Amino acid sequence: MCVAIPGKIIELKGDTAKADIMNNICEINIGLVSPKIGDYVLIHAGLAIEVIKKDMAEEMLELFSEIEEAANDDSSESQK
Amino acid sequence: MMTLQKVKSKLSKYNGKEIKIMEVCGTHTASIFSSGIRSLLSPKIKLISGPGCPVCVTSASYIDKLAQYSLMENHCVLTFGDMMKVRGSKNSLTEAKAMGGNVMVVYSPLAALDWVVQQKNTQFIFAAVGFETTAPIYALMVRQMIKRKISNLKLLTSIKTILPAMEYICENEEAIDAFLCPGHVSVITGSDIYEDLAIKYKKPFVVGGFEGEHIIAAVYDILKQLQKGEHKVKNMYAEVVSDKGNINALNLLNEYFENFDVYWRGIGKIKKSALRLKKEYAEFDAGSNFEENDEDMPKGCRCCDVILGRINPPECPMFNAGCTPLTAVGPCMVSAEGACGIWYKNR
Question: For B15-28, what is each residue's pLDDT tens digit?
Answer without folding.
Answer: 999 999 999 988 89
